[in-house]
Each structure stands twice: as C-alpha cells, then as structure tokens.
Amino acid sequence: MIINTTILSWVTFIYFGSAIFYIFRTVTGKEFFGPLASFIALAGLIAQTFGLILRWFESYKMGIGHAPLSNLYESLIFFAWTIVLLYLIVEWRIKSRNLGAFVIPFAFLSMAFASFSPNVNSRIQPLIPALQSNWLISHVITCFFGYAAFTIACGLGFMYLLKGLEKEQSSRPFLRFLPGREVLDELTYHSIVIGFIFLTLGIITGSVWAYSAWGSYWSWDPKETWSLVTWFIYAAMLHSRFVSGWRGKRMAIMSLIGFASVLFTYFGVNYLPGLHSYF
Amino acid sequence: MKKIILSFLSSLKLTITLLIIIAVASILGTIIPQQYEGGESFRHLGPGLVKAFNSLQLFDMYHSVWFIILMGLLSLNLIVCSLNRFPTSWKLFRKKPSLDRSKPFENLSPDRILVIEGNPHEVIGRVQNLLQKRCKRVRKKDTANGTVFFGEKGTYSHFGVYVIHLSILIIIAGAIMGSLLGFNAFVNIAEGESTSTVHLGRQKGIKKLDFTVRCDKFSIAYYDNGMPKEYRSNLSFLKNNNVILQGPLLVNHPITFNGIRFYQASYGSIPGGQANITVKKGNDEGTTIKIKQKDSFFLKEKDAKVKILRIEKNLMSMGPAVLISIQTPESNMRFWVFKNIEKIRDSIPGLFKKVPKFNPGLFKPYYFKLNRIESKYYTGLQLSHDPGVSIVAIGSYFIITGFFITFFSSHKRLWVRVDEKEGKSRISVATTSNKDPVGLKRETEHLLSHFKNELG
Ligand code: HEM
C-alpha cells in the first residue's frame, strides 16, 4: 500500500469518530461532545488534504502525474473532502453544531466505500487520453461541490422531518435541541442554491469537456441526462418556493428526492447502458 | 379564451408539469437503448413492442417530435411568463416611494434609532454624504416629522430572473440552430490514404467535403502498465492537391478546418498485415524477414517452401500467432507459431507432446520465432459542424451571471429620518428588502455603526 492510501484510510476512522461524537452530542444534549467532534473533523480534513496532496505528488513520482480526481476512488475521497469542508464552513458561519450528526456520516460513508469496497481500485492509474483535460478537473471540482451542498441540504431535510416529530411536551430532549424550523428551512434553501449553482457550473464545464473530447457538447448519454434530471428537480423545487411559496416539510422532502437523484447520477448511471461511464 | 390560454401558458403549474414530464422521458431514454448507440439490444423486446416503440420514436427519443414539442412548450411557457411579469418588475425597479409616509418608521425597534449630540442641521449634511456613499439615487425631503432620506441598492436584482430565463432560451435556440444547420459525421482513413467523403451520423447518408483529408500516420503510445496514453493521427488537409494545414490530431485536441471540427474518435487495424519472423538454426543468429499472408519463401538447404497461411492477432486468447506450412519433396507439415510461446509452454506442461502443432521447432533443425505482427492502422475521425455552439456558450455565460444577480443581490430600500429630540439629533433607520433578510440585517447594522462612528 502506498502512503497516501494509508493516510486516507485512517481519515475514514477519524471521520467515523467525529460522526460518533456529533451524534452523541445530539442524542445526549451534552455540549461537551461538540467541540471535540468539530476538532476531530477539522483534524481529519487537514489529514485528508495532506493525503490528497501526497497522492498528487506520488502520481508525479510515478511519471503519470495528474490531479487526484480521475477515478471512482479519487472521486469518492474528493466527495468526502468537499462535504467536510463545506460542512465546517457552514458550522462556523451559523455557529451551530447540530448539523454535524446529519452530514459527517455521509463523509464517513463515502470514505469507507472508497477505502474498503473491493470494487473500488485505490491504485494511482495513468490517465487514458479522453481524461487528459483541464476541463475534466474543473468539471469534477464543481460537480462535487454541488453534490456536497446537496448532501448538506439532505441532512437538513432529515433534521427538519425529525423536528416535525416533536410534540409539545412528550418529545425527547434531542428534538428540542435541534434548531427551529424556520432556521432549518432557510438553511436548506441556501444549501440548495449553492448546490444548484455548482451543479450548473458542473454541467457547463462537463459540456465543454465533451465538446473538446467527443465532438458534441451534449449527446444525451445517461450521465448527462441524469444530471439534467437532477437539475430539473432542483429547478422545480426552487420555483415552487419562489412562486408558490412552498416551505418547510415539502422542501425537506424535495431535498431528499433531489439527493436521491444526485446519488443516482453519481453511482446508478453505471448500471445503465452508456457511451462513456467514466469509471 | 385567450386569457385562459395565456394564463395556462404562463403558469408555474405548467412549468413544473413540463419539467417532470421531460425528466421522466429523459430517464426513459436512458433505459430504452437509443438508435445511435448501435442498439441491437432491443431485439428481445419482440416485434410488436418494437413497432409500437418505433412509431412513438422511442428509439430516438431526444430527437422525436413529441420531445421537441415538450421543449417548445417549455420555451413558450418561459416567454409568456416573462412577458407577463416584466411590467411588474419594471414598476418595482422604477418605483419612487413617497417620502412623506411615516409608515416605515412605525414600530421601529430601539436599536435602529441613534441619538447623537448636536443640532439636526449640523448632522443632516453628513448623513446625506454617508448614505450617498452606500446607495444610489438618494432622495431627501423635509417633512413635518423631520428630514427623510431614501436610498436604494440592488434595484437591478429584479431582472436576474429574466437574465436566467433568457439564457435558457438562448441555449435552446443555440441547440436548435446546431441541429438544423450543423451535422455530425465520421470517417475511417487508412494510413497513407485520403478521402473527401464522410458518412453522416444521425441524418444518415454521405457528405462530400470540399477538401481532402489525408492520414499520414496513426500511432498509439502506451504507459508502462499497458494502458493507452495517446492516440495520434497525423493529418493533412488538402485543397486542389495543395496541403493547406497539417497537424497531429489527439483526443481532447480537435483540429478545425473550414469550419469543421475533427476529433480523434477511434482506430483499428487493416486486416492482413505483416508477420515479422526470425528463422533460426541451432544457436545461430537466424534471419529475420517480414512477410505477408499467403506469401512464401524457401529454405534452400532442405529444399523447403515455407508459406504463411494465416496471420492471427489473437489466436484462442493466446496472443498473436501465424500458421505456417512447410513443403519439402519428402513431407508436408503445418504448425502454429505463437509470439508468446514461452509463456504458453510454461503454463501448459507437456504442451508440445499433446499438441505438436504448437511447436515452433517442429521442422528440425529449424526454429521459428514470431517477433510481432506489423499491421497498418486506420484512424477513425469524428467530424462536427455546429454553428450553434457559440450561442450556447453565450447562454451558459449569462445563466451564471443571472444566478449571481438573482441569488446574491436583493433590492434594499433604506429610509433614514433625522429629527430633533431634546436638543439632540435622532436618527432613525428603517430598511426593507425583496428577499435576503440576513443580508438586509447586515446592511442595516453596517449603516448604523457607520453613523455612530462618523457622527458620534
Ligand atoms: C428550466 C427552465 C425554466 C422554466 C421553464 C422556468 C419557468 C418559470 C416560470 C413559468 C415562472 C413563473 C412566472 C410567474 O408565474 O410569474 C418562473 C419563475 C421564476 N423562475 Fe424560472 N424557469 C426555468 C428556469 C429557472 C432557473 C434555472 C431559475 C434559477 C434558479 C429560475 C428562477 C426563477 C425565479 C426566481 C422565478 C420567480 C421569481 C418570483 O416569483 O419572484 N428559473 N420560471
């Protein structure tokens, strides 16, 4: 095993620890776990950044240098990285740790899938000609920031629905601990806007890449089509908010549906017949 | 009637319905194999279903009449809605609220009110200056309740939606233009050959170019682990037998000639090719020759005629091999010579006993060695001419601009009133915004702290 994959598989455990502390904090209502969880998440992020940079260097040492964004393993790792980065920014901006229990587990799952699934090859591979493009790099970065923002929206949606279970008195302490519904709703909306902008950028940069590699900026292959479907879902969601004023529960459910579509765009598409499933 | 149609066409319900229908149809298109994917795979559906699918154009869904109608409806929806809304937005943009109203200042929370030493007359000028630094179109009026200023920011934010919607229309227009005026084609050219006719893709048929493309050479480079690193075609573009442009064509680096973009799409090798063979006797160096299928040569010492019957790139998954026949006055024999014979022999113990035909030393005392099969490549080029691309690019650019206007700006209105209270100046700040309450709060607090620092 090369050093970077060792570091990255350790990061999986770090995120696991962080997720556990966030969940402890939310369930027990003891603030004590909060700073610990944040600190571990930040440490994990730093270690992961280091691991990614190291992987980049190692690929150059092997003479096949390229940014670590080129296969399923690297994309899963990057996905986790964007989730944690975006999450920590949100935590810092809203000065609340409630969201962690709903978001950091996704980062852990992505890392665990990358590190331990037998179907995911963690070796540094050279780039086949079609992938040798700077547009690919911008495409992957924008897409995954979008996906991460949608992941956060999905976590918020979950939280909203959980909060909906709260009854006046009988409720468990941790439900009362969660932020108010308007706050959640507003945050969901902001995450989706950020995700939507990045998804749009991702589709545009992907088209530019396709235009320089395959001769057509849009060829309705399953991955492209599903990203458009995802775009439509979120566009419909934003419109129902802007124009019909949909809020709250409906938005929460839509954010789960949207996220399901994101996941399918990312993973499911590989089970469909297609021209270029990239990994 | 006209009204009903118009309100239907501009309704958000229609938008959402269309988005859902298009999404579902697109998903179907990723499940039903589409024609250009070489779709033999829909045979199993049965002839009846295939016929039904065919008449609904389900095998070329994204170009079918009904899909285009759906897209057209979506565009119409966008246009009608935007035309409907525009006057309202324009009014909001132009609106100049009356400064006499005291309504904005009713129920103002105490932290939006500053009391400052000094007479209002001394303060007013500086308030105006500070406000003008932060806002456009500051207006001032002396009312019975004091001097009222009004300023606004981000008035353009009302137009973000139109920028977005217009960009979508521009993108759709560019796509339509591309599919009407553009074409896609492909052609295979063997090394050293040239052509000026290409096969059209979706439109089917043949297209004659007004120039000639020649493939001078095609080559592949590999990484150490055997993965392909580079596909390269050296192309020449000729007009009237004069080379106008010459260059290497690589994946991700298309070449444009005469408004047509050329892409490295595929490659292959021409059947046949040459075998590079070494014939050894004992431990000598041997002689190496290149020979084509069906050709033969003589081994004088034995009066033997050696003929290459077949050249196989990959025989029984064991790699390159040639079938050799040897005729001497005494005997006739045939055997295969594999390139990887050492590996094959090691993995199957006793191979030459079991299958003497695989023994490259069958014709004693000679030993045949296949060094490689040299084949001639052809390059597969994809051609595309799409006059709509720049329009789509402009639309993409504007849609992002529109997002920033819509999501990150808001129309903020600021009312500031200065009046006298017990010999001091009282400054009241009231603000409203069409969206983004958080940003509004920040803006208001900024303004208040500005006043406090500069005037206090
Ligand atoms: C997919 C193509 C789109 C279609 C067909 C479409 C259509 C519409 C329609 C019909 C309305 C309602 C107008 C009304 O009832 O007054 C609307 C409003 C709106 N759309 Fe779109 N839209 C599209 C894409 C987008 C996108 C990508 C955005 C940006 C996220 C966007 C942002 C808005 C906003 C902000 C409003 C209403 C704002 C308000 O009510 O103040 N639209 N759109």
SS summary, helix count of chain B: 10
| SS content category of chain A | mainly alpha
Order of helices and strands of chain B: HHHHEHEEHEEEEEEEEEEEEEHHEEHEEH
Count of the domains of chain B: 4
Oligomer state equals heterodimer
Distance between the termini of chain A: 21 Å
- The CATH topology of the largest domain in chain B: Tick-borne Encephalitis virus Glycoprotein, domain 1
End-to-end Cα distance of chain B: 64 Å
Strands side by side in the biggest sheet of chain B: 8-7-6-5-4-18-10-9
Low-confidence stretches of chain B: none
The total of beta strands of chain B comes to: 20
Radius of gyration of chain A, taken over Cα atoms and rounded to an integer in Å: 19 Å
How many domains, in number, for the residues of chain A? 2
Unreliable residue runs of chain A:
274-279
Shape of chain B: elongated
CATH architecture of the largest domain in chain B: Sandwich
Alpha-carbon Rg of chain B, integer? 39 Å
| Secondary structure category of chain B | alpha+beta
Q: Helix-strand pattern of chain A, N to C?
A: HHHHHHHHH
Secondary structure blueprint with pairings:
The complex is a heterodimer of chains A (279) and B (456).
Chain A: H1 3-28, H2 33-61, H3 72-94, H4 100-116, H5 134-164, H6 173-177, H7 181-213, H8 222-242, H9 248-266
Chain B: H1 2-9, H2 12-31, H3 47-55, H4 65-94, E1 113-116, H5 120-134, E2 136-143, E3 146-153, H6 160-181, E4 183-190, E5 194-200, E6 206-222, E7 228-239, E8 242-250, E9 255-257, E10 260-269, E11 274-281, E12 287-292, E13 296-299, E14 304-312, E15 321-327, E16 332-338, H7 341-347, H8 351-354, E17 366-374, E18 377-385, H9 389-408, E19 412-421, E20 424-433, H10 437-455
Antiparallel strand pairs in B: 1-20, 2-3, 3-19, 4-5, 4-18, 5-6, 6-7, 7-8, 9-10, 10-18, 11-12, 11-17, 13-14, 14-15, 15-16, 19-20
Helix pairs in contact in B: 2-4, 4-6, 5-10, 6-9
Q: What does this molecule look like?
A:
The complex is a heterodimer of chains A (279) and B (456). With 279 residues, chain A is mainly alpha-helical. Helices cover 73% and strands 0% of the residues of chain A. Chain A has helices at residues 3-28, 33-61, 72-94, 100-116, 134-164, 173-177, 181-213, 222-242, 248-266. Chain A is flat and about 60 Å long. Chain B contains ten helices and 20 strands. An eight-stranded antiparallel sheet of chain B has the order 8-7-6-5-4-18-10-9. In chain B, strand 5 (194-200) and strand 6 form a beta hairpin. The two termini of chain B are 64 Å apart. The model of chain B has no long low-confidence stretch (mean pLDDT 85). Classes of the chains: A mainly alpha (279), B alpha+beta (456). The interface between A and B is large, with 43 and 47 residues. The complex binds protoporphyrin IX containing FE (HEM).
